Amino acid sequence: MAQIDRHIAAADWIGRSSIDRPPSSEPDKSAEIGDLWRILTVRRAWVLGTAALLTFIAVAYGFLAPPLYAATAQILIDPRDKQIVTNDVNPVAMAPDGGVMQVESQARVIESDSVLTRAARDAGLLDDPDFGGVGTGFLSWTLRTFQGEGAAPATDAAAEARAVRALRRRLAVKRADKVFVVDVVVTAGNPDKAARIVNAIAAAYLKDQTSARADAASRASSEMASRLDDLRKRVNVAENKVEKFKAENGLITASGQLISEQQLAESNNRIVAARARTAEARTRLQQIKDARGSTAFGPDTAPEAIQSAVIERLRSQYAELASKEADLRTQLGNRHPFIEAVRTQMQDVKRLTETELTRIARSAETDYQRAVANEKALTANLDELKRGSIVTGEASVRLRELEREVDTSRAVYSNFLNRSREIQEQTGIDTTNARVISWARPPAERSWPLRLLLFVGGLVSGLGLGAGLAFVREYLDPTVLSRRQMERLSHTSVVATYPEFKAGSERPASVAASLTLDRLASVRGQIHPPGQALSVLVTSAASDTTDRRSTIHLLAAVATARGERVLVVEADLEATPEQSASGPGLIEVLRGEVGMAAAAKADAESGAARIGIGDLAKASREALSRANIEQFLAAAKSSFDLILIDGGVLTGNLRIGPLASASDRLLIVAKNGATRQRDLLDILDISEVLGRPVSGSLFVDRYAAAA
Questions:
Q1: pLDDT of 139-197, one tens digit each?
Q2: Distance CA 338, CA 345 (A)
Q3: How far from the centroid of its chain's Cα atoms is residue 573's Cα?
Q4: What does the alpha-carbon distance between residue 293 and residue 311 come to, in Å, rounded to a whole number?
């Protein structure tokens, strides 16, 4: 350890220098929950100092920083575009979650270079010093030099790039959950400028969307127009193939159908009609033949085939003559000449009727023969057409295939042509369903710096950082935090716990001192014989010098009050010359220059006798020999009941090693949060080397009453 190594030359003053030193214990860097508050309290200077520093910096920044103003515009982006044309280039349908994704994508579009560049030009930011404009002063030149931009931008592209970079740093695009409204926020040093920039960004976004959709429609139209040329050529090629094939195979069409097929269909229809006429003529001829042999020749019995105007007239005449004959026969008798004349007329009518029937029969026979001949001619023609159709069947199959290709090519070409015309018309239609629902207005209040927020943030962050530094400091250089930790480190018990020595703690401290005196008789298993004087050497770390002296003074006062004779011996060889220049003391007594009675002086405050350190220049090796010290302690014990020796900082006061070895008890005074663990371990190691292990410890707890 550093302090022990620094005084290694003082080993000559120690009579037990040959004793092997035990290995040092390591500092205990663990801490309990209750110790955290003690660490913060002990190192409150770090915490409060850091908090004060950061708070001052934050408040100073709040008063010195130029104010910034945030202007906001709100844009409603409906993921469903306006349905103006049925077959739109931009589809309306989307996935269930596609709306949120589309709005998020549009929010990124607002931050894109194309929108920001257009907004920077419209808002006049290319020459604005706050947004990349080049100043002519020395400060602007210095800033450009540190940023690696020594020369001013010589082109508009460079100025636009600088403006866009500066604008993007001041831009924030936000969207709340479950809404399609996007907030566009821009921060600037002037409220009017902030509002102007935000509105320029919103307008640039709407223009960008309109132009993007128009460009998409224009590109699609151009691509389809180039495709139409290919489709038109394909249709022409297919039609030429059909016409060439028809010419090569003699396939002539009319009204979209082959003439041979039309002739075949017409011939078939004529044959059907001819057969119907033949059957009708045959039936009429048969009816006429049957009617000529019939005896009945009344108007009701005449078949339809022989009903004619002549027959009807003859039949009427015959009926009139028959009626006249009947009347005459009734009046004149059966043999009257008039009756014979009538009968003659009736025979003439019958003969004329028969002649007419013969003529009708011949006419029906002629019609029948003509119908049969026509039917045979048509049948022959149909057979010939059938044979021709069989010959052209294979060519017709190939022709229909070619015609299907023509129809398909023509349909595709027609669809593409219609779609191209629709897309051309869409280039002038804005289908974007986005609109600005709230244009930005110049903000009335600044958005930064918020002085109250900076104050609270600086204070909270300072307290947090200070607490962290305090914990780190404690971890790097741990102190004794609690009584239990003191016992773990020293491997001894705490004789008593003292409250911090300050006004109002006299009574608890006196109780602790009385308890200490009661327990000094038996510590570390060493029983002191009753009635014999007890010598106690009290030591501590350098940071606990005041508490050590206060403890010794308190023990002396309490023991004197209990009726004991107490001697307080100053043995701190590291005391300052002012502390040692108080007349003869311990050094002179050990050298034999003065007696103990002459060196001891009464202490008015405690009532005990006190021997100072004396002249430190006389602290020779012979004076501090073990024999002189033992002789001194023996003389002191013969005159006093309790000898309290102020051993100072034992690690730096090694020359009193014989005094520590000769003392009955060795006590350490430690204070939580003040005593460094490394100093405590150094004292423990030195006590082991001196052959006088620490008997116990007196613990000063600033947070607790006496135990």
A1: 555 655 655 554 544 567 888 888 899 999 999 999 888 888 999 999 998 899 999 99
A2: 11
A3: 69
A4: 16
- According to DSSP, the residues that pair with 569 across neighbouring strands are 611, 645
Q: Helices 337-391 and 259-292, interaxial angle, to 10°?
A: 160
544 within 8 A of 671, measured Cβ to Cβ: yes
Radius of gyration for the chain, computed over Cα atoms and rounded to the nearest angstrom: 67
Q: Which burial class, exposed, middle or buried, applies to 164 when counting CB atoms under 10 A from its CB (0-12, 13-18, 19+)?
A: buried
What average pLDDT is seen over the chain? 79
DSSP 8-state code for residue 440: -
> How many other β-carbons are positioned within 10 Å of the β-carbon of residue 370?
13
How many residues can be counted in the chain? Answer: 707
312 phi and psi, to 5 degrees? -65, -40
Tell me the three state secondary structure of residue 225: helix
Beta bridge pairs of residue 583: none
Rounded CA separation 685/285 (Å): 158
* Cβ burial, residue 28 (10 Å; 0-12/13-18/19+): middle
Torsion 672-520-638-657 (CA) sign: negative
Work out the number of other CB atoms within 10 angstroms of the CB of residue 452.
Answer: 10
Among residues 565, 534, 570, the alpha carbon closest in space to that of 552 is found at 570
pLDDT higher than 70, residue 130: yes
Q: Determine the pLDDT at residue 307.
A: 62
Rounded to the nearest 5 degrees, what angle is found at the Cα of 263, between the Cα atoms of 258 and 269? Answer: 130
Q: Which two tokens stand for residue 360?
A: 């009708």
